[in-house]
Amino acid sequence: MSIRVIAIDGPAASGKSSTAAAVARRLGWAHLDSGALYRAITLAALDNLGETAGEGETAGEGSGSHRPAWGAQQLVALAEDLPVRLVLVGQVFRPEVAGVGVEDAIRSPRVTARVSEIAAIPEVRHWVNVQQREAVGTHPQGVVVDGRDIGTVVFPDAPLKVFLTATPDERARRRLAQRGDRIDPAELKRESDALGARDRADSTRRVAPLRSAADALLLDTTQLSMDEQVARVVALARQRLPH
User: Fold this and answer.
1) Is the Cβ–Cβ distance between 5 and 143 less than 8 Å?
2) pTM of the full predicted structure?
3) Given a cut of 70, is residue 60 above it in pLDDT?
4) 110 three-state secondary structure
5) DSSP secondary structure letter of residue 152
6) Mutual orientation of helices 122-137 and 34-48 as an angle, nearest 10°?
7) Which has fewest Cβ within 10 Å: 32, 151, 206, 231?
8) DSSP 180
9) How far from 137 is each of 66, 130, 134, 155, 196, CA to CA, in Å?
C-alpha cells in the first residue's frame, strides 16, 4: 500500500503552506509544514546555544561573518535532548521545543534571519526528514506536507506531487500583503529582488536544492485565487488517492 502523502513544494511566498493547510482541511487529512521544524530548531539554537557574536555585537548585525558557528552534531543533539518535535494538534502537526508550543515564536525576525543557515546543514536536514517520515507514519489517513524538497527528497514516492510557482512580482505582492506592508512600486521591487535572490540560493544549494520533481504537477498560481488553486489540488487528490 502506497503512502498517503500529498507533497507540495515551491519557492518562497508561493503559497505552499496556505494551500497545503486548506487542502488538508478539505480532505480531512493532517497538515505538516516542514519549514516549521527547521524554524523550531533555529529557535532552540538561538535560545540555548547563544546568538551573540562577541562583546557588544549581536548575531544579526553586520555581515554575519562573526556569527557563532553552530556545529551540525551540536544542533542535532540539542534537538534530540530538548526535544524539538512535531505534535499532532487536531489535524495539524505543530512544533514544540521542550514541551512548549512555539508556533508563534518561530515566526519572529530573529528566527527568520537564521533559519536558512540551519536548513542548509545536511545533518539537520536528515534529522528533520526522519521526523517528517515518522510523523506521516502515525497518520495513515493522509498528510499534506509542504516544503522545498518534499517531492524530491523526503517523500519521492508520494502519489501526488505539486510544485507551486508564481512570478516574483506576484509573490512579492502576496508577501507584502501578508505582512500588512504598503504595496508601492519601490517596496514591491525590493521584495521581488529579495525573493529572486532567495530562489537562486535555494535552487543552487548543494544539499536538496529547490526543484520540481519530474512527476510533479507544475501549478502556476500567478492568475489563480487561493480557492482556485486549492480546488485544483483537491480534485487531483480525489482522483489519485480515493478514500
Assistant:
1) yes
2) 0.87
3) no
4) helix
5) I
6) 130
7) 206
8) T
9) 41, 11, 5, 12, 35
